[in-house]
Write a structure and sequence with these properties.
Layout: H1 4-7, E1 10-16, H2 23-36, E2 41-46, E3 60-63, H3 65-71, E4 74-79, H4 81-91, E5 98-102, H5 117-126, E6 130-141, E7 146-150, E8 153-157, E9 165-171, E10 174-181, E11 183-187, H6 195-198, E12 210-216, E13 226-229, E14 234-239, E15 245-249, E16 252-257, E17 261-276, H7 282-290, H8 299-305
Parallel strand pairs: 1-2, 1-4, 2-3, 4-5
Antiparallel strand pairs: 6-7, 6-17, 8-11, 8-15, 9-10, 9-14, 11-12, 12-13, 14-17, 15-16
Length: 307
């Protein structure tokens, strides 16, 4: 049973990527920070990560995921964008804000650099931050009566077969296209910098209220990405000469389905809350992560040729 002292504390849950060697050093920094912090704070970490966590922490408690999600006022992730996605699927509709510390590569979602971690935790405790509501995709399969959610995207894939598949796509009851392609990506603005971008899709500002429909290697070069309102209902009917097609959510395999499967995709009735600091900018993140504005020319050669 929890003590009143425990209940009066601010509880922060942590989800880590155990493959990152530097995770332990940042956990130690958090543990030391709690010790020096003038505020009362609890730090929780999931039991399924306990084998990666030593017993030397004074303030970090190991607990089951359901307790972490029921008590935490903030979920902190230590890893990259994949760790954020793990946290997103754990939080789901619980509306717990997420702050991502980037120990990975690009870091479009986990965009807090490690050296800002403690400053941003302080900002959270003092209320000096912003919350961005990010839309979520809901997917329902008609024949199996299933429901899935995705933060970045849903992908219909040809299941390793060498031939293309056909995806008859309607928006709000109106036929958009009958795509003949390797697959189709339905993406949120958050997911626009993921697989959709690699497949030639546009970069969309996260707070924009749209979805992106993006074919993967379409048979016709006139088939281009289409941006639609996030209030729309997307209906897909998928045909294949092979025995099945695959469905993925946020890069994770969901299931395979027979030819003729009907899939409906729309906006979920909940959002994911990402914490952003007031000085942060999506456009600054784009410039930094994509190296926009940098001069990649050989400056020595350029100088020599222009003497």
């Amino acid at each position: 049973m929890q003590s009143d002292n425990f209940k009066n504390k601010t509880t922060i849950g942590i989800i880590i990527n155990p493959r990152k060697e530097e995770v332990l050093q940042y956990l130690k920094k958090i543990d030391d920070w709690v010790d020096k912090c003038q505020k009362t704070i609890n730090i929780l970490a999931c039991t399924y990560q306990s084998k990666y966590l030593p017993n030397t922490f004074e303030h970090i408690q190991i607990c089951a995921e359901d307790r972490l999600l029921s008590e935490s006022k903030l979920v902190l992730t230590l890893g990259g964008d994949g760790t954020i996605l793990k946290a997103v699927h754990a939080v789901n509709d619980k509306q717990i804000p997420i702050l991502g510390i980037n120990l990975g590569g690009l870091g479009f979602l986990a965009d807090t650099p490690p050296d800002k971690m403690l400053n941003n935790l302080e900002a959270f405790l003092t209320g000096n931050y912003l919350i961005e509501d990010r839309i979520v995709l809901e997917c329902q399969t008609e024949s199996k009566d299933e429901t899935f959610y995705a933060f970045n995207d849903f992908v219909i894939d040809k299941s390793g077969f060498s031939r293309v598949i056909e995806i008859i796509t309607s928006v709000d009851g109106n036929l958009l296209n009958s795509y003949v392609a390797d697959g189709l990506i339905i993406s949120t603005p958050t997911g626009s910098t993921g697989y959709s971008l690699s497949a030639g899709g546009p970069i969309v500002v996260p707070k924009t209220k749209v979805f992106i429909i993006n074919p993967i290697c379409p048979h016709s070069l006139t088939n281009r990405p289409v941006v639609i309102s996030d209030e729309s209902m997307i209906k897909l009917k998928v045909f294949t000469e092979y025995k099945e097609i695959n469905l993925y959510k946020d890069g994770q395999f969901v299931n395979n389905y027979p030819s003729g499967i009907v899939i409906n995709i729309s906006k979920a009735d909940f959002v994911i809350k990402l914490i952003k600091m007031k000085e942060m900018s999506f456009f600054e993140t784009l410039r930094n992560k994509l190296h926009w504005g940098e001069d990649f020319r050989d400056k020595k050669r350029w100088s020599y040729n222009n003497q």
